[in-house]
Please model this.
Amino acid sequence: MPIWAFSAEQEARPQPINKRLPLIYPDMEPFEYLEHTADVKFRARGRSLEEVFENAALAMMTSMIDPSTVRLEETWPVETESESLEALLYQWLSELLFLFDVELAVFSKFDVALEEAEGRWKLSGRVGGERVDPERHLFETEVKAVTLHQFEIKKEDGEGEGEVWTAQVVLDV
Amino acid sequence: MLNKVDDYIFEVPMDHQKGMLVPGRIFISEKLLAQVEPGTIDQVANVATLPGIVDYSMAMPDAHLGYGFPIGGVAAFREDGGVISPGGVGFDINCGVRMLRTDLGANDVAPMISNLVEDLFHDVPSGVGAKGRLRVSEHELDEAFTRGAAWAVEAGFGVPEDLEHCEENGRLAGAKTDQVSLKARKRGRPQLGTLGSGNHFLEIQRVDKIFDERLAEQFGLFEGQITVMIHCGSRGAGHQICTDHLQVLSGAVRKYGIELPDKQLACAPLGTPEADNYFGAMAAAANYAWANRQIISAWTREVFERYFADARLDLVYDVAHNVAKVEEHNVDGSKERLYVHRKGATRAFGPGRPEIPAAYRDVGQPVIIPGSMGTPSYVLCGSRGAMKLTFGSACHGAGRIMSRTQAKKTYAGTEVKDGLTRRGIKVMATSPKMLAEEAPEVYKPSGEVVDVVHHLDIARKVARVVPLGVSKG
Model:
């Protein structure tokens, strides 16, 4: 029995990007992989900063394992804060790799809340997934770390349809 | 545009990019250069903008696109005015390779190859998220961070002679465990004594060609001999240490007003607390990696002894290929202490250097170049050209030419395994899918890469070894 559950407040938040975005941008995916010879490079998108953080996490996990093979059996809290948004995204993704390594768990659901106060950014998040089962979990690759190479978060004009955030990340694999 | 300096030396001119303090130099053949991505050349140029860089920003013939430094990148920095950067070391600190030589011939081992590979696969944990067989205490973990392979030998993994045959004797001085975060310790403790995944491997090999009889004899190698190669690094501990300090050094870049073309080149001026702390933490990770390879060697010996009671597996040499170290080199005719960064490059000291073990000092250090899965590996001998041209550095492998995504589109893991089996190579891997991205065809032919360093007298070809059995993550 999955124990993943949202609080009422979280339920009230907008649906994940992959359910919502196609209405406005039919071609837009939550993330895409870009060509890199040795490592994994991706660009994640979101209609809000929270979504771009969540989709970046999904992009990173998807490079390791097919998320449809991950059951939602447990959740783990993630709390981090930083002086910049970029550093916060780097910490959030790095924290997931740390959890993966020490909990031996894989994740397929990500929930992020962001807050800015007095020049500092704060992230309170949760990730849902399960412990690695070697019988069911076939890894595509192992991500060693999140690099800062060509790392950027950008806000783009959504051509009258609101703003779109993108995050570009290179992972060391 | 690159300027051709020599048949095997191409220069990245200072006007390639704004802010270059020295030109770049790529040691490569024209044929291999055609496969180098423009982004790799930009990365060579990026490194050339770092303060205190000496002579050139260099790349070895296996150069390919990385993050920060290119893979195959070498750069040295002055102690006075220079910097240290995790972008020149990478996340897998002291990823490296060691070779053990046996006194067994291929004919003795061939009938047992399946058993040996199965036992190695079972006895040396590998794969994503593998937990070690070891349960080390917090104190033992500190020892591994501080004393590396020396601790492992004392703990019963191997013999003192092994240490003589490791770069830095398997222990980089100056490790600071107070700069290793709790997170790095948490990742490091259960993973000590694990191979990891990706391109890491444990391979049983046969010496199939000797290029230089005299040097081969010095290294204890002969045709038909069985050797074992272990390729792995500092695992999650090293990844976390780099992750933690990259953030600190990003702050240092702002604090000391350094302008960077790439955030991964975050660095700190040598002599500052940020630089000292990164060096101390990096040394701890390097030591962890040496302890790791030492422990895996001991388990490898146990497996061989199961089938060949009197088998001897002596360490030829252990080299690091992701590390920054303090070394003395000739700069404009005088000796200077430099911080040499090697990112996907191997130290290749020529004859006479005091760092080389006595057994090899007259000829130069062994330089071990692992091939990709299923392709030959090479043993070279560091030579005088390296001391003149590359701060005593050579290539580290074959060099990737096809991305992982493309590799998976092109090859299926099972096909790759079948192909190797047909060639008589026994392969065991925890994740068959991951075999596709390591298919032999996604790398440059390693023979062409080592030919370049041989021609430049950076490192001379000694022996070629071919795989018989591979255990992978």
Remarks:
- Confidence is low (pLDDT under 50) at residues 10-26 of chain A.
- The CA atoms of residues 21 and 27 of chain A lie 9 Å apart.
